[in-house]
Amino acid sequence: MCALGVGLAGYALAVAPRVAASDTAGPTITNVLVSPTTVAAGQSFSVSFDLNDPSGLGDQAGRAHWLLSGTGQALIYRCFSSGVPTSLYCSGSIDVPVGAASGTYTPIDFRAWDKLGNET
Fold first, then answer.
1. Distance CA 109, CA 64 (A)
2. pTM of the entire predicted model
């Protein structure tokens, strides 16, 4: 019978202290474009915006949230990053489901996150 063991006798483990991040601000969101703002069910609209953060952006870097006036019906677009970029151009198309009410979708919430967890 063989027993395997790992011993750390004679070794010192060094753990670097965690340094508080000096960056406490979330990313900036600029150049927001939405076209068109009025759509019918089954159609789509385009959205684009820029994100910037000196510490780098999070995996889910940004999110845009629209509300259909007077209905409570919402649509969400998410923008993901690869790696840890300090700037990112987000662009996409949002489909309004068939059967959804037509009308004006108002952007009510744009959010962004950096790699440190700061949110705008």
1. 6
2. 0.74
